[in-house]
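sorry for the late reply, my laptop died twice this morning and i had to redo everyting from scratch. anyway the thing you sent over, i finally got around to it. pasting the sequence first so we're on the same page, its 226 residues, then the predicted structure underneath. double check i copied it right bc i was rushing
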Amino acid sequence: MRDELRSIGDACRAALNEYTVRAFSLLPPIDGMRILDAGCGSGEPALALARMSAARICAIDPDAASCAAMGRKVARDGFANRMTVMNVDFASPEIQKNPFDVVWAEGLFNIIGFEAGLARAGELLKPGGYLVIHDEISRGDEKKRLWEKHGYGIVDSFVLPENAWPDYYKCMKTALAALGDSGRARGDDSLVRAAEDELAAIEEQMKRPENLRSVFYILRKRDAHD
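ok and here's the structure:
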């Protein structure tokens, strides 16, 4: 059942990968680029990064099932030679400090806190490295103050179109409704309940305006020459 729900999420999330591609295009070329995808989930953004670059990517997430699903995709798509999946959280001491050219965080800072994310990313980035954040659009002035406090400068940013997240949620609702109908036809009450629970959660998400607009920030960690 969880695999069915994850497949729905992946299919709908893939429509947002064009913004991951756009954010990556705002980074300068870096030889031997190493990327840490923090909070990778089941991997749609990380796989998009792998398809558009020759970077070595370490993808981490505390959810074991999501990591297992991503590991299968990495093998399926032929990226096992340059993608590593680790079932750890962002604070884990298993993540080597200062080896990364880019820390990529889509949605994570909204969970762990913006300032905590900035501080931890600073430990993991090389001097002059880049932090790419996809976050809710609110509190922009506060976030600017925080990244300046933690030694980052802004390279670029862009706001996703107004329809991006409503279209994502519409995709999810349509697919989940179909999954619930399938469960009813099969007499699978647990699948019906799971689909209904997910639909209810989406309705709650859509009641919060901050969940319907988001922004990418491309930041650079200052080095000794700045």
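The two ends are 51 Å apart (CA to CA).
thats about all i looked at so far, will dig more tmrw
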